[in-house]
Amino acid sequence: MNELTLQNVTKKYRQKTALDGVSLSFKTGINALLGPNGSGKTTMMNIIADLISATSGSVLWNGASVSKLGEKYREILGFMPQNVSLYKRFSAAENLRYFGTLKGLNASKTELEIPRLLEKVNLADCADKKFGSFSGGMKQRLGIAVTIMNDPKLVIFDEPTAGLDPKERMRFRDILRELSESAVVILSTHIVSDVEALADNIILLKNGKICENGSADELREKYAPEASGDKSALEMLYMNFFGETE
Ligand code: ADP
Asked: What is the whole-number distance in angstroms between the Cα of residue 10 and the centre of ligand 1?
């Protein structure tokens, strides 16, 4: 069992506190970060991915400081930012080949990985098409393929389902379930239904603070909101905290 831990993490942008003393641990499985826009999800993910540094506090991977792990941390990490940006003039396969090299995969392993990954994200027919010609959903799917290359042990997805149609969303859920058997998966979203179907652990974030943390069942039990109309119990809980769902 792997574990990513935040210890009293605060991030300030000038006078704005985006994260306010967050302590939290993410274990192997699917961890969903749920909160409205501006609640601090991207900031938290960027800190976990070691792309920006916290103003104070620490991030630990299995007890070791991420900033000290350096290259070793990058080897186990897969990160998909909100706006997937790959090489426009490279085909899908060329992009995967390029990122395989960056991730330190040897050439023969990369060649085996490319068709497997393209199949997984339903882009096998587009291996030779240029990324620049892809629709938003296809870009997103190639981003997923790049992110899960080389079996990362910590995988972070920032708003991954934006731009995916319902069928692709289901396919992505399957990918996440498979990944989560051996990896710590963290995904951020403001879409409650994504979380309900998937998450082993749900973290509700508001104004840079954690307001709840537990499994969907635990949260339902704690607040026991009745599902009403076509709203699920978790949607009711979300509305309780944040006042609206999308
Ligand atoms: P979310 O991903 O939940 O939408 P963010 O982490 O993007 O939230 O933002 C949290 C808060 O921090 C917001 O109020 C946002 O305006 C602010 N913020 C984020 N990035 C910056 C930045 N680079 N400079 C100043 N303020 C920022």
From this structure: 13
